[in-house]
């Protein structure tokens, strides 16, 4: 009989040293990006004014360390946000769906209520604007004025959440009869036995409290929706300052609104994503979902809110075409795989593997092994292009994202070639391009 939780043989991110470096370096990088684009210093040209950045570090972080690292108001606000959404996630009705089959043969049930929850959230927001009488919501102003302590709060929160999940992964699950216990399913890559590495990468595959799935919740709710709120906080700030909103800021907001709510509304598709099916939930995912996504993905909007930058019509058209093409590839490729896996596209060409699974070699999936990543990279590029070409800072997102997807492609290739053996080789002979047809 195969062991349910074998020891991890290969440690991603260069193992323990890599996990220590990333635990420190990623939050520092988020802080650094903030320092380059805020009310006190705004990087608009290529060269960096180190003296100005040093002064902000001194004034806002060192001299103000208590407010920065132990900000009571931000903790209250963030806990209300996180646990408020968790309660909404649990009580708002939706449909129940099963995830992929786990190693012990079982499947987890998920409550899919993204549509209902988004509707509730947007209704509350519009209700607040109606109640206040204009677009000057104090909660959005609070977000804008507290970005730095909020970055630190979400980072600290991620450390606590990852620790909670790590400790919980050692406590056996109680069976349905209330007496028997059963082993938790651990992530293939998160069971090295080294506490630092396992805490960082995530030891348990699907940490849950009752039927509340912490990983899916963090992936789609508090971080993604905070990103949306930060973006509109930047619009509000610019509107109050200039009396109107520039077309560049409006564009990046509309594009990202589409992307955010596409993710939140299509949570069924997320159930087959690598993060949910394969990765454990530790500091890396917690920090990524709760701090990295809202604070760095909103960088273009923050940058644009600080200046009056309008794009010419030709640029608006060109960037919109890039965004729509990317979105079309991203969406239709992901849908095609999902529908095919559900048996809804029986006439498409595929390779039958030894297990029940078939590998699609037709449509989008006949063009490249991860054509959906190509769509996502085009989307990322369109967001960065709205900021013009003054500074490389705002191109951080597309550069980082391309590296992330490249790493995912490599990890997925290793996983699939192990899982499908000769059938995967057969597939790669049919479809040699990895992400961009005829390029890579
Ligand atoms: P994919 O959607 O590409 O899923 C890969 C998995 O699909 C493989 O492990 C395999 O799973 C299955 N598969 C691979 N090839 C085939 C095929 N030819 N036919 C059928 N099944 C196949 O990757 P991700 O989960 O990484 O990404 C999903 C989406 O999320 C992408 O569009 C990506 O761009 C986006 N994304 C966005 C991020 C963000 O921060 N905005 C971060 C990460 C991803 P199996 O073992 O089941 O066969």
Explained architecture:
This protein is mainly α and 440 residues long. The chain has 2 domains: 15-309, no CATH class; 311-440, no CATH class. 61% of the residues lie in helices and 6% in strands. It is built from 19 helices and 8 strands. Helix 1 (15-35) packs across helix 8 (195-201) and helix 1 (15-35) packs parallel to helix 14. The mean pLDDT is 92. The chain binds NADPH dihydro-nicotinamide-adenine-dinucleotide phosphate. NADPH dihydro-nicotinamide-adenine-dinucleotide phosphate is lined by residues 273-274, 330, 334, 337, 357, 359-360, 365, 370, 372-373, 376, 408, 412, 415-416, 419.
Structural class assignment: mainly alpha
Q: Strand-residue fraction?
A: 5-15%
Distance between the termini: 40 Å
Tally of helical runs: 19
What gyration radius follows from the Cα positions, in whole Å? 22 Å
What ligands are attached or bound here?
Answer: NADPH dihydro-nicotinamide-adenine-dinucleotide phosphate
Family: Belongs to the ERG4/ERG24 family.
Transmembrane segments: 12-36, 75-96, 108-131, 151-174, 242-261, 281-299, 311-330, 377-406
GO cellular component, one term: endoplasmic reticulum membrane
Keywords: Lipid biosynthesis, Lipid metabolism, Membrane, Oxidoreductase, Steroid biosynthesis, Steroid metabolism, Sterol biosynthesis, Sterol metabolism, Transmembrane, Transmembrane helix
Q: How would you summarize what this structure contains?
A:
Helices cover 61% and strands 6% of the residues.
Descriptive key words:
440 residues; mainly alpha; 2 domains; two-stranded antiparallel sheet; 61% helix
